[in-house]
Amino acid sequence: MTINAIIVDDEPIMRRSIQRFLKAHPSVQVNAECGDGPSAVRSIEQFAPDVVFLDMQIPGFNGLEVVSRIGLEHMPLTVFITAYGEYAVQAFEARAVDYLVKPFGQNRFDEALRRVVERLPVAGFPLAPPEVRPLGGDRQESYLEWIPVSLGRRVCPLKVKDVHWMEAEKNHVILHIGDQTAVVRRTLNSLEQSLNPKRFVRIHRSTIVNAEKIREIHQWLNGYHMVVLHTGEQLRMSRYQHKSARILLGK
Fold first, then answer.
1. What are phi and psi of 10, to 5 degrees?
2. Into how many domains does the chain fold?
3. Which residues lie closer than 8 Å to 57 by C-beta, 6 or more apart?
4. pLDDT tens digits, residue range 183-204?
5. pTM over 0.70
6. Per-residue b/e over 143-179, b at no fewer than 16 CB within 10 Å?
7. Of 119, 154, 184, which closes a domain?
8. Residue 149 near residue 164, CB atoms below 8 Å
9. Closest of 98, 221, 224 to residue 157, by C-alpha
């Protein structure tokens, strides 16, 4: 099976690096190389590739604008590339397969390509088309499905549904996934706006919990409740979170 690709980056050195990484994957054929937004749009429309390696900051207009002009329903699988991690949230909201932070090597690139291959149709059995979510469209259709988390110089996608609970730590959010944690450079309030309120519930000014991870809720002291997760962790629900209490207690 041949995988058709387009490389979009305004730095010739980076385009050559991606070409070099792809030599380890002879099944990938590069249809075009682009150095700016307008040429990227034209090439995607012309070649309809399976994947585009798309630099976030390019002349003309940036990578997110490329996605907007093509349209999510017509956009190929996308691996965003950037020197900064600040656009990671927007990238995954645009259904990016992966997000590479420069500089990266062969192993990290191979990991991104593996994710691309996993999303491609199996011979004779095409994947069902992903749900289309317009950029900046209906609020109900734009809940965050992936959270990009920093691991050293890497930014990796984490499925939101796998997060058990979240807690605020100054201008960061600590994500708890079982006995593991990850840190997101974002405030809890801003993150809450991107989450599905039917699944993630604010139980304290510094705590959001995944309702699907709750085992039981106990009444506690002075109007407080204790939320017990399937892992056995206990989280205190503030008595001022009346709306959350009504949702979780089925009132």
1. -80, -5
2. 2
3. 10, 63, 82, 83, 84
4. 887 788 888 888 888 889 888 8
5. no
6. bbbbbbbeeeeebbbbebeebbbbbbeeeebebbbee
7. 119
8. no
9. 98
